[in-house]
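FAQ
Q: What does a multi-component entry look like?
A: The components come first, one per line:
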Amino acid sequence: MIVRAAPDAIGSQRLTLVERHHELRDHARAAIRQRGYWSAFPENPNAYGDSGEAEGKAAFDAYLGKEFPLTQAGVDTHVGSERSPFGFELGVTYPHSSTDGLLAAAAAAIPPWRDAGPDVRAAVCIEIVTQLNKRSHELAHAVMHTTGQAYVMAFQAGGPHAQERALESIAFAYDEMTRHAESAIWEKPQGKRPSLRVNKTFRIAPRGVAMVIGCNTFPTWNAYPGLFASLATGNAVIVKPSRRAVLPLAITVAAARDVLAEAGFDPDLVTLAADGESERRATEFATRPEVKLIDYTGSSDLGQWLERNTPQAVVFTEKAGVNSVVVESTSAYEGMLDNLAFTLSLYSGQMCTTTQNLIVPRTGIDTDQGRKSPDEFARDLAGAIDGLLSDTRRATAILGAIANSDILERLDRSASFGTTILASRAIEHPEYAHAVVRTPTLIAVDGEAELQFHLEEQFGPISFVVTVSDTSAALRLLGETTSRCGAITAGVYSTNDAVLAEAERVALEAGVALSENLTDGVYVNQSAAFSDFHATSANPAANASLTDAAFVASRFHVVQSRRPSEETEK
Amino acid sequence: MIVRAAPDAIGSQRLTLVERHHELRDHARAAIRQRGYWSAFPENPNAYGDSGEAEGKAAFDAYLGKEFPLTQAGVDTHVGSERSPFGFELGVTYPHSSTDGLLAAAAAAIPPWRDAGPDVRAAVCIEIVTQLNKRSHELAHAVMHTTGQAYVMAFQAGGPHAQERALESIAFAYDEMTRHAESAIWEKPQGKRPSLRVNKTFRIAPRGVAMVIGCNTFPTWNAYPGLFASLATGNAVIVKPSRRAVLPLAITVAAARDVLAEAGFDPDLVTLAADGESERRATEFATRPEVKLIDYTGSSDLGQWLERNTPQAVVFTEKAGVNSVVVESTSAYEGMLDNLAFTLSLYSGQMCTTTQNLIVPRTGIDTDQGRKSPDEFARDLAGAIDGLLSDTRRATAILGAIANSDILERLDRSASFGTTILASRAIEHPEYAHAVVRTPTLIAVDGEAELQFHLEEQFGPISFVVTVSDTSAALRLLGETTSRCGAITAGVYSTNDAVLAEAERVALEAGVALSENLTDGVYVNQSAAFSDFHATSANPAANASLTDAAFVASRFHVVQSRRPSEETEK
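Then the predicted structure of the entire assembly, as tokens:
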């Protein structure tokens, strides 16, 4: 239910928000500069009250089989066809608004939001994020049953971690919008004549209507940076979710609209553009002249199409990639295997950061347990995965469920990609009988072989042990794969400083974040808000980083006015 | 002559540059935040020594009829066909390097430049700018005789003002590159277990090879922001000048190469890509995969082509536009007329910031000299222009010469654009008998008429007095013209606060810088470095501002590496 504040209450309401949130905002601003560890919201589900999970589940259950409660411009019908990867239809339908209606409403909502300025906008955005934080258990259920993530992961990645990415982008946006004075007196000496004095005002103006195109596997985590970067810089945002993962973003849109309305803004600043049965609204919206910003996560095909066919918009994309880890040597063989096993297993490898290719020199790996041939390493890694996933309850808590049939079909085909070292197993979920749960498959390939399935993204629980001639070839393959196929993560294991230095050089040249010798509780596929830059814009996997200055700076422009200062004094 | 420093001297040479220039750098950084008046380099030609102008002329003369002294990679021939708008052939030829040769050399030069880091790069860039500053008289002659600017303007716009725009972009680039820590220890608490500690390093990596496409009329002023923004962020820069204005950028490239070589860097970090007789190298280079950044000033056709056909590159364009000034009322009629007359006359209106359309309500203008009808205003403005240009020596010092035959032909056609209020006159230049000097023409049109030549850019000394029904229609036309045709400047004259407020709103919506009630020594066509944002990216005249954060932030990316901190301590 949307409550519009009375006009006379709006000013104090907004001031209250600024006062409430400026410390959090400034903590976040300090954190993005310092890049150390900082957390705005607890990631432990238990920190959200004893009854938090039950209340979240009740809120989630209340949506099932009903029309989602969202009032927005231009609604012409209701649409929805989500099915939980854990095996049941959600039956939720969402308001479907006409394209013209949504665009007109979004554009009309902008001026007062623009004129409210960076402080108020940042405060309102942070209020939205904190309201979302309170609903993290509700979001966790929604994320779990649209993505297939296990509950704790859905809670963390879909809740506080996504919210922190939102806060990070708000902090970057605030920094960029306030990096210069709002006004200045320009006084130029003129020798003996009186100096020239001009009063200048510099206003932050948004680009216009922004669009955020969400993905199936991380509907909130991948959408929030763009959503909040665009919103904080004064734009209106139309959220186009994956048809398989609408609910988490519908909850997000509804929460944003409530906060905006309470602060006296037009809630159509944030709207939902759900796809009807056979619609592809992403391309329909993206080519409209009103749409000036597009944030996209998804397939490379559509991402590249957007990059090339929407010249009226600034486009931020995260696309497919092939992430590599070079294994050269280690002083902690068990730790390395356990670390890699967890990375390959987490959410059945359905992450843009999961390692696909483990590149090993043919001569083997020096370890604290002696030299290991590529075959031995592959078998030992398979063993580590088996060990990690031997207990069904633990396994399902790590693996979650397979998000969609595309991934399942790819997994079924994967035996033809090389020599299967570890076959994927189906696991019966103890709670959800119809859940599709699969363990990772590990496939050995020769890096010089003709068939190179490992050089295409095989999204899902499919990884390769790729044997190459030597360490140089391994690092070269990491670089080439990144430059050619894109990558969001890269890793190296080596006890040799020269190899680590060369790996850093290769990663720098190819433009990919490098993790070295991870053997403990940090994983190559994890990216911490405020510290790790997620993606680089330097390779085909993404044309932007979530989040850096370039991710926010082009979402607004500065419009100045100037007049002689005696004019303003009269 | 390029002197390569001995390797053992390089470190101290670079340190010296950092020490020499960090104050200037930090002054510039403060200036771009405060946006008041600040000048790094004197704009008065007399401040550069008694013999400055003569030495500059001698240096310029020494180039005429010769091969320009520039040693760079891949030279296969020499090319050049510049003719001074003041009426003589320059006869200078420039090294023509193969596309493959230039691209390979540029790419190979990058790694040590990248690894030198933001401080050294900023210092080297500032050293280049200060070396250029010392050669301002030489550059002034080169700019004068390629653009047609009169000497003092060529000196200021081509010399110190362009150098200040360079310094401004270096300051923005430095700020963005250093906005976060270079390294951090990420230490995450783990309850009772030992905390996770990871050492992280964040490196600034350039995009790759950058290209700067210069224009005929402001070869240095428009090229320097992109050139130095790309160079300071670690890229190599290939400079593709207009075939009509090579010399100013050849001098710039040579100066940059000297400084780079002295600091121990590969001078092929900055190279010249001169066009041969029938070549169009802009499009040839721009579609090469190595080219990751393009800065362009010129026609809308090529600008839009670049925006749409170079998906591998980030493209910054400044294109055509139609600048408007609404004249509603004034308390200083004479001052207003004089101010407008100077704007229309300066450099014969051959500026991207010159007002093309003076929009007047049919009901006339309230002034301190009574109400003036549109006709009276047009005649009075014509009189002010005539008065300003009555003395030939003064006239030629303001007008300069017509840069090229395209502009002259347009001027010849302009009588058919409407009712001529003031015809363009040819003026004989007292020093250059063959110079093509023309005064502005002023043409009256009905804003509701069918033929709308005033809604296309008529680059050169062609302006329109456009009559519309009332003040609202005038402001609406300003907004619509800006949104549809693009604009870099806009102006309004009014004594009515409500009209000024509405003009500000219209300019904000359309995204154009607005000047109000300029009657003294500040002109709508002038843009001061460190204070005025030149262009906005919000309308078709430009997709970027020279210079703001968005202009620099996407020229580099951040590549991180991380390893458990015990690893780094061993």
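Q: Is there any commentary attached?
A: Sometimes. For this entry: Chain A has a mean pLDDT of 95.
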